[in-house]
User: Fold this.
Amino acid sequence: MTENLRHQQLSAYLDDELEPAGRSAFETVLQDDPELREQLNAYKRLSNELRVDETDKRVADVIRANLRRRRRRRTWLAWLPAAPVLASLVLAAVLLWPGSSSPGVPTITSDDLFNQYTEAVIELGE
Amino acid sequence: MMSRKALALFLVVVALLLTPSPVLAQASPAVRLFARMLQAEQTLEFVGTVSEEVVFPDRRDEPQARHFMHPPGVSPELVERNFQMAITGRETVADRNAVVLRLVPKNGVSPNWTFWVDEETGLRLAYEQRDANGELLASGRAQQIERVNLLGKPRDVRAPHLTPALKERVVDFIDLDALPDGFVPVALERTRLGGENGVFALRLTLWDGLNGTVLLIYPRQRPVPDRRYLMSRELRNVTVSALGPLPDEALRSWLTRVAEGPVHRLTARQLRQLQRDSDRSDR
Assistant:
């Protein structure tokens, strides 16, 4: 058996792709070939390690997502001490903005304006 | 004893007073009737009952009044300049014969007037004021006339007019060409909007001889919503409101022209100064 063929059969055996007859024949060869057995064991170990890595990757993804969420939360929390200052600035801007009504300054209504008209016209006759 | 010279002078003055004015003599019958009505309103009053309804500006009914509340005054020169006058018929009002005198504004947007003038005395027996859309603004009618009195002291029925001093102050912030056709400023006052704790405002009253419009200028704030006879515009530092019984389009056009003029650049400090200067109305 050439090295290439051994490797192909070993790979097919591990992936459970051999026909029953072929599988049985390959196991007979395995019993007589300690080097091939050693290679098979090495492949199995590697395969297990790869499976662990896959699990780790999924765990890492979960951890990374959690970290991102915490970081976002921390970004908001970082502004918390400045909240009163920011709120004051926003309030001041609203109150000082021309056209905004401020406490204590009465809102002008259409009645106020019409009263002015009436008063002005009446005064013309006085 | 009166000297001959003084007697001659007295006779000349009397003759001049009794001679009809050449201008009036050439005037149309409608203009002469209008002049007669004004003269009667200054010297006579009727005692009786009147009904009067003033829709705009809103005013109380005074049924026992000896003369009508509206118009508050008349400016004959402006009326002759701004209105077409015509006698349109004869009717009976409070059992008296009246001539119907109609005044239609030449600018097409001011309110029009109809007067029912007593044939015998020249007194106004009824009137109606309608806006350009035909909506009633004010009306009054004598219901019953008990007698006509001669006033001991003539009553002044003339409205204020534009003085040079007033004009000088107004042109600082208003382009006079931007005013509605036929209207002139007659009063500039400081007033307060929004009650005792309200904001100070500058109030400019305009007059076309029989109708008034008002411009209010106050520190900038969100304008009240526009409605019939009222429009406002928020400018850089001030808010301007225009009020008057004019059609929406005329009021808007007037306000736009005013807003594009010097008032647009008026600062809050300048407005306060104008208000202080206007504490006493200059009529």
Remarks:
- The longest strand of chain B covers residues 136-150.
- Helices of chain B lie at 4-18, 22-26, 29-43, 76-82, 164-170, 248-259, 268-277.
